[in-house]
From TrEMBL:
It comes from the Bacteria. It comes from Pseudoalteromonas fenneropenaei. Residues 6-136 form the Gfo/Idh/MocA-like oxidoreductase N-terminal domain. This is Gfo/Idh/MocA family protein. Residues 147-276 form the GFO/IDH/MocA-like oxidoreductase domain. InterPro entries: Gfo/Idh/MocA-like_OxRdtase_N, Gfo/Idh/MocA_oxidoreduct, GFO_IDH_MocA-like_dom, NAD(P)-bd_dom_sf. Pfam families: GFO_IDH_MocA, GFO_IDH_MocA_C3. Keywords: Signal. SUPFAM superfamilies: Glyceraldehyde-3-phosphate dehydrogenase-like, C-terminal domain, NAD(P)-binding Rossmann-fold domains.
Length: 389
């Protein structure tokens, strides 16, 4: 008997929405997932048209997410959606996730998880009461050589970690006239994006990547956020000093006004014996630099690499895989997690290498603490989280 695909619903991501198309491509790449329903826009007519243009049955193109979850829950178990992908602006992430979980559906959400840290804490508490899975799309975790870097640090090749430097620079918001674009407008609106633009949009990716690869946790931070384009109330640039739970220090640079930059995410981790250097602009490569010894240029698919690294690759060495494939790795792992859950097997996020509610809460804590620290005169701001950590 052929394996049945995991059935996905989508909220947001209608025609003209960049990230919705990315999600659909990624979810479809490995043949594990099928899009069967959606509420693709807050405009009912646009929502219906978007779904029908994607080839969905008209009766499963819903005018809003509330109606979608109510209607899907009434369908036979073998027909209804298994999970929902949330690809809306930030202010809708929590209400959509809450509605889905209460209706019994798993959730795979864009980051940041919620509009506020309190909502993330509430979401964590809600998941404790319901038998639902939750995943978060920290896309850059999906790159094969990021997994190789994580493996080598966990294996002790760098020795004790001393310093972490992570930079995420873009230039697409460098001018005031950039404010009017669809992607920019909601990110610069606190009612839709939350308390931060730059740190909430890309800084949180950098913080998550630093923790994921190093295996460390941020314990304190010192921040300086800026709104460098006149008229903006939310940050478009910032620098954050970090302290980690093993005593290591770090620097996080994030900017969306760095003229000439495209999507320059770079991570450098320095240990006692060696360092690692990875750039999203050349994702199939990883530099390992031992102390007083020749540097090693590691390439995806070449030589002996960890099982996690190999599982994240689809093509032979020299055939570049990038952003879509990294995104697809998250979807592939989440689909496997759902299958395990349905089979009554252990299905924790860590075992399936899927960012989950822990990362969701830590991400919102990073954003809010960074904004708060930037407003204070005191140098260091404790990184505190409530009951869910």
């Amino acid at each position: 008997m052929a394996k049945k695909k995991i059935r996905m619903g989508m909220v947001g991501g209608g025609e003209g929405a960049f990230i919705g198309a990315i999600h659909r491509l990624a979810a479809n790449l490995d043949g594990e997932i099928e899009l069967v329903a959606g509420a693709f826009s807050s405009d009912p007519k646009r929502a219906k048209l978007s779904g029908e243009n994607l080839g969905l049955a008209p009766e499963r193109c819903y005018p809003n997410y509330i109606e979608m979850f109510a209607s899907e829950a009434k369908l036979p178990v073998h027909d209804r959606i298994d999970f929902v992908a949330i690809v809306t602006p930030n202010h809708l992430h929590f209400p959509v996730a809450k509605c889905a979980i209460e209706a019994g559906f798993h959730v795979f959400s864009d980051k940041p998880a919620t509009l506020t840290l309190q909502e993330a804490e509430d979401l964590s508490a809600l998941l404790e009461k319901h038998s639902c899975l939750y995943g978060l799309t920290h896309t850059y975790n999906g790159y094969p050589m990021i997994k190789e870097a994580r493996h080598r640090i966990a294996n002790g090749e760098l020795g004790a970690i001393r310093k972490v430097v992570v930079e995420y620079s873009q230039g697409w918001l460098a001018d005031a006239k950039d404010n009017s674009g669809k992607q920019a407008a909601w990110r610069l609106d606190a009612s839709q994006s939350g308390s931060s633009c730059c740190m909430g949009d890309i800084g949180v990716h950098a913080a998550n990547l630093a923790e994921y690869v190093s295996g460390l946790s941020i314990t304190a931070l010192c921040a300086d956020l800026n709104s460098l384009v006149a008229g903006r109330t939310l940050d478009d640039d910032g620098t954050v000093l970090l302290r980690f739970n093993n005593g290591a220090k770090g620097v996080l640079l994030a900017s969306q006004i760095a003229v000439g930059e495209e999507n320059n995410l770079r991570l450098r981790i320095y240990g006692e014996h060696a360092s690692l250097d990875w750039s999203q602009m050349e994702p199939n490569s990883l530099w390992l630099r031992p102390h007083n010894a020749p540097a090693l240029y590691l390439r995806a698919g070449v030589g002996s690499q960890s099982a996690l690294t190999q599982a994240a690759m689809r093509t032979p060495a020299g055939h570049p895989e990038g952003y879509i494939e990294a995104f697809a790795n998250l979807y592939k792992n989440f689909a496997a997690q759902i299958r395990a859950f349905q089979a009554g097997l252990p299905a924790d996020n860590l075992s399936f290498d899927v960012p989950g509610i822990r990362e969701a809460v830590r991400g919102m804590a990073f954003i809010e603490h960074t904004v708060a620290a930037s407003r204070q005169d005191s140098k260091w701001h404790p990184f505190q989280i409530g009951h869910s950590e």
